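Bumping with the actual sequence this time:
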Amino acid sequence: MNGFYDPCDSLSGISQIVRRLVPKLWPMSAKYYTHFIAQSEDAIEYSEYRGVVELLDQSATVRGNRDIARMLARSFDLEENDIQVLQWHQLH
């Protein structure tokens, strides 16, 4: 030991404790009013949906019809091209 007090020695231990106490942030969901038509390639008829859809773990901002169609297709286990978005609005 060199006899000098290093404040970083004590701060290091404290910062490790504080880091563990910080709550973990979970991804938020986003709710959208959507009006869209879904059709898979095997289906003969169109299915029209109108209502509120909650998309979980949304990491990107929706900027247009293709973005919302991509997320809806993922949620309904369809291809993006199977979704035709007629109207959508994010609910606050």
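The tokens above came from a reply further down the thread. Residues 30-91 form a domain with the Ubiquitin-like (UB roll) fold (CATH 3.10.20).
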